[in-house]
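Input record (Table S2, row 324):
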Amino acid sequence: MKRKILDMLKQQQTWVSGEQLCRELGVSRTAVWKHIGSLREDGYDIEARANLGYRLRRVPDTPFPAEVIAGLDTAVVGRRVEYYPEVASTNEEARQLAQAGCAEGTVVVADAQNGGKGRMGRGWFSPRAKGLWFSVVLRPPVNPMETPQVTMVAAVAVAAALREHTGVRAGIKWPNDILVKGRKICGILVELNAEADRVNFMVAGVGLNVNVARDEFPPEVRDTATSLLQETGRHVPRVPLFRAVLAQLDRWYGRWLEEGFASVLDAWRRLCVTLDCPVTVHTMRDSFHGHALDVDETGALLVRTPEGQIKRLLAGEVTLRRLY
Ligand code: BTN
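Output record (biotin complex):
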């Protein structure tokens, strides 16, 4: 009902009388008033005047499904959007929805996370209303061996959306960190649920720092993290940015499924800031210096060690030994 009232206010773009709302929706004036109150609590700026009725003045910059889906033209990603004011981790919520059989492309977004998960068992700082913390359920019909490619699909999509929508020159650090001038603006955590030869589902979690001020970051990441606020010098509205990111995710995911990994890899190479760079590699087992040469057709990073040996990395983390 609340959604229907909102739709009517949006459609008419002018005063809508209480009487019309009651009549068309078949509810009492008190019910209309209650729903208007609830929309206001959500941040919708609704003016009320005797004799005129209600008028929608401004919508909130919160990724409510009604705001995100309006104007979102995607085939798969975002066909369903679930919003939570706060969760432990959107990856966790998405995993549960996926296990219960939700449609591919379902997106779970939260205004805040209190147990945001990062790669390598780390946490992810996810303050309220300052970023885009979301996860997408994917069910690609591929062999589990090919799934590392999905992290690269997501990285290309986010970097492309940032460039297109904000003009910020975002680059990719292998495998899927998004950096701006050497600082991390976005992290991607892709989790897999598979059997030996088939993927049940994947959850692609994206944490994009939008309006986080430098001094709001925890001290331990203050010098290595950044946000769009810091890079552009202005507050960036989250909802249109979210739509741009979802649209690019949809575009690159579709391309990957239809055309294969080659076109993704091309775009990834163009956006990558780790290739042809001296790097330090950290794996579960050891750390070593080397020179990042290329990524192969599976998405593995090829690193030449000082002894001239070429190592092929499927997982791990690299640190750039100089800023690009
Ligand atoms: C990284 O360590 O670089 C990956 C960070 C991924 C964070 C996002 S925020 C939304 C989603 N939910 C989580 O708990 N993690 C991912």
